[in-house]
Amino acid sequence: MRVLAEGTSEYLAVDPDGYRAYVRDHKQRALVPKLMSEHEAVARFVADGEYLVYDCNYFQRGPSSLIREVIRQGKRDLWLCGKFTYVDIGLLVGGGCVSRVDCGFFWPGATIDNAVREGRVRVFEYSNIVMTLRLQAGAMGLPFLPVRSFGGTDGFAHSGAKLVEDPYTGKPITIVPALNPDVALIHVQQADRYGNARVFGTGIAHQESALASKKVILSAEEIVETEEIRRDPGRTSIPYYAVDAVVHAPFGAWPGNCAGYYGSDTPAVIETFAAIAADRVAPYIEKYVTPFADDRAMLRQVVGDERLAKLRAAETISEGYRA
Amino acid sequence: MSIDLGLKPGVGTAATSFNEREMQICTVARMVENGKTYWVAGGGGPMYAVLLAIKLYAPGAQYITEDGVIAPEPMLPFEPVMTMVSSRAGYRALAWGTMNSAGNHAQLGLMDYGILNTLQVDRYGNINSTAIGAYGERARRFGGPGGADSIAALCWRTVLMTDQEKRKFVERVDFISSPGFLDGSAGARERAGLPPDTGPWRVVTPWAMYDYTGDRLLRLIARAPWVTVEQILAACEFPPVVADDVGVLSGPTEEELQILRAELDPRGQNTAERSAWVVYDGETYTRAEG
């Protein structure tokens, strides 16, 4: 294929054969129980310097408790997949965990502005759907995918994309590099102990992220019996063999909305936005993360059972979210 | 000979007091057509405009969001930022998908219109949502295109909502996050791999409506009744083409405002943001400066 133009930014090395070999050697095909604490999951499966994808975000069925655990354990030098994200990037940057970001969308503010200006964090430019397509390519075992958007933008020039001559039509087409992250954090409504998981409602790229990533940590509102999974296999969104760890995390998406389970905690949502905007992430972390052994202790002591019960009661819609 | 703006007449009686943001949303709502699909950016003006239209003007219009929701009947109002991947936003949809399903459907040509809010837009409809200033460590960083890049690239027609201010309505954006007509030359989008026959179609500000000439030049086609063409041109960094007969937009109606304020945005998250007030005494619209 003739390359007509190409972006100049660094991107995670594309290696589908290497990923296949990793899958062969590390993904468990046996049904093995994977239930563990969030501490153990993050300690075992998230390492400094790795590429991390989380699905959805801190406010919308995201792995918020796992993100807090990554900050709690002081992970460093992470490269983040910043698609469809509000405050997650800002929290992790403010927590000192990040050195690189692939940008689809994140909520800007002083925390990120300062980090970029001081050279602590580098940002590479994509868009939300370009990032989910990169994950799709990674989840298909391919080196790249063509996409009909992104060409002609300045983001393209600051990315790993290329414009090539399509060998079939002869027309120009943009191709984007496959993404196989080191680790994925995904919050789901239900999972069994082996990692068979059900996502209810819409999503961003939970299936693509799970299949494309070397290591996958699920947090789940409910742990269900495998018999329940077998009763309705069409609802299994993520199969067990993609998954490395399952964390039982009721209210794991707090302060966000977990569709069918609880509404968003609006004052806490606004508080998080404000922390990013004013570069006040450190006090936020001191309030919600560092004093606690785990997220459950934080939820009990800072948020409180009464408030959590109200959030649960506020979620009046159940259509589509219960088996 | 005046240009047909393609706007539905406002339902109800002319409102006597409103802000310019509300004017902008009502103008876009009156553009919405039955039987068409709208890929709307999550939240803010674009989503309110389509929801208002479905209630008053085009009950058969359908909208899609970036998380793959197709044609919802959402439970209003939305909590702050809960316009996607939330139970209320996806309520009574015809289908739930994912970001890639939404993107694929747009890539197939299923999205008639995209509606976008923009931070900074230029004369060719290119949108900047990445950085103000020379790109790099010195620039002021913004959040990136999100889904706007795909909306702008893949919908058949794109409607851009932006403020009528010199620093936001510029000759050339600092960074093209989402594509308009790129450098404005014929075939520029196709040469960049974008699908043919797509691109910016209308630009709507609180003061004005623009379309594009056959050679992709921004053209002023209508103004709000309380501003002159000269005032609008003074709030552009570059001189747009001016239609021979610039139309006059109608102000919002009380019925539109009732829906907008009481049902869609009761917290005033979007419509109450900093924007000038306008009063109407039955004959004249007067803009309250400052």
Tally the helices of chain B: what do you get? 7
- Looking at the structure, what is the overall shape of chain B? globular
Q: What is the CATH class designation of chain A?
A: Alpha Beta
Percent of residues in β-strands of chain A? 15-25%
CATH fold node name of chain A: Glutaconate Coenzyme A-transferase
Oligomer designation: heterodimer
What proportion of the residues of chain B form beta strands (DSSP E)? 15-25%
User: Helix share of residues of chain B?
Assistant: 10-25%
Class by helix and strand content of chain A?
alpha/beta
Largest sheet composition of chain A = 8 strands, mixed
The CATH class of chain B: Alpha Beta
> How many strand elements of chain A?
12
Task: Report what the structure shows.
- The complex is a heterodimer of chains A (323) and B (290).
- By secondary structure, chain A is an alpha/beta fold.
- Helices cover 34% and strands 19% of the residues of chain A.
- Chain A has 13 helices and twelve strands.
- The mean pLDDT of chain A is 97.
- With 290 residues, chain B is of the alpha/beta class.
- Helices cover 21% and strands 22% of the residues of chain B.
- Chain B has seven helices and 16 strands.
- Chain B has helices at residues 20-29, 44-56, 99-108, 148-154, 188-191, 229-234, 254-264, and strands spanning 17-19, 37-40, 62-64, 113-117, 120-122, 127-128, 131-132, 140-141, 157-161, 169-170, 200-204, 208-212, 218-223, 241-248, 277-280, 285-288.
- In chain B, strands 3-2-4-9-11-12-13-14 form an eight-stranded mixed β-sheet, with helices on both faces.
- In chain B, strand 15 (277-280) and strand 16 form a beta hairpin.
- The chains are: A alpha/beta (323), B alpha/beta (290).
- Chains A and B meet through helix 5, helix 6, helix 7, strand 8 and helix 8 of A and helix 3, strand 8, helix 4 and helix 5 of B.
